[in-house]
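Troubleshooting: if your tokenizer reports a length mismatch, compare against these two reference records.
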Amino acid sequence: PAGDILKLAAPVSAFGGTPRISKLLVSEGQVVNKGQTLAVFDSQPQILADLIRIKARLKTLEIKIVMKKREISRYEEVAYQGAASMVLLEEKIEELIKLQGEKEEALAEKIKLEADFSNSELKAPINGVVLRIYSRVGERSGNDGVMEVGANQAMEALIEVYESDINRVRI
């Protein structure tokens, strides 16, 4: 290809390793479009499970926050009338602040997991052709990455011709 040749690699985990390939969705010589999924890594099921878990945790925290706000509004009414202590009201407010902090932490974790999930698939960055596959299903990618994709809109060829055959060459 006269254009770019890109070596596509697997994502590096937080521990410094790369995941294994669980599905290889293309073969050498296949035409691919930008954004097309080329391979899926074995980290995807675990990330998906963690994402489901954090979404459930967020839903639980939302419910707890709503309930805590209702409880605080009830305590405010009776505290201002003198039927409950202000200290108890302040404790309830502190509990609400803690719950809101847990929710913010869970939201940040969800964003991280969504990014990790996106990286659990190798996508084509350009329109082109799969030139070479270096890693197969069950393998971790090496120094060469997973595969090479070349932009094939324009091609170049280097051709060697014997001097005795040069008169046979035509445009």
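Reference record two:
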Amino acid sequence: EIIYNNSEEVPVMMRDEAEPKHSHTTVSVTINEHKKFSDGSCKTTMYDGLECTGCGKIWIGDKIGETTLVKCPH
């Protein structure tokens, strides 16, 4: 999911199609990567990121945090 500076949360839909040629206009976002494990636990890793407001392309930057839970509430 992507978390915008105004705290709006949006699921990430990764796309492999070619983007139209344009100059990217980006906004800063936080990207959460959630992994669920077979023992019922989970890990969420948070990254700084950028998203193009025109085409939706996402660039993942530096890792900024990580949370591990023994029982996944998601």
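Descriptive notes for reference record two:
- The chain has a mean pLDDT of 82.
- The CA atoms of residues 8 and 56 lie 15 Å apart.
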